[in-house]
Amino acid sequence: MFKQPDFRIRRNPCTILARHTSLEFTRLGVIVGKRCARAAVVRNRIKRIIRESFRTEDFEGTLLDIVVIAQPSAATRSTRELSDILRESWRQLSL
Length: 95
Known about the structure:
Radius of gyration: 13 Å
Order of helices and strands: EEEHEH
Number of strands: 4
Distance between the termini: 20 Å
Number of helices: 2
CATH topology: Ribosomal Protein S5, domain 2
Strand content: 25-35%
């Protein structure tokens, strides 16, 4: 997945890698390391925001395996900022 993604979207707080899949649904993987945020509550907040943003997005028949890798700047972003950036990235993937 990481070596040969079909799509790579790099935005300041996160990197999104995606690949077409033969499964009947789109899957999501989230990576938020300790380097991104030392406190577990902050890492979990970032994961919740990413999962909720993914859940509310409709990929309209685009079947993908998606991995979101959070960068250290994600810890300082507000929920609204992070959600808006992810929403733009999901739209790029569904095109």
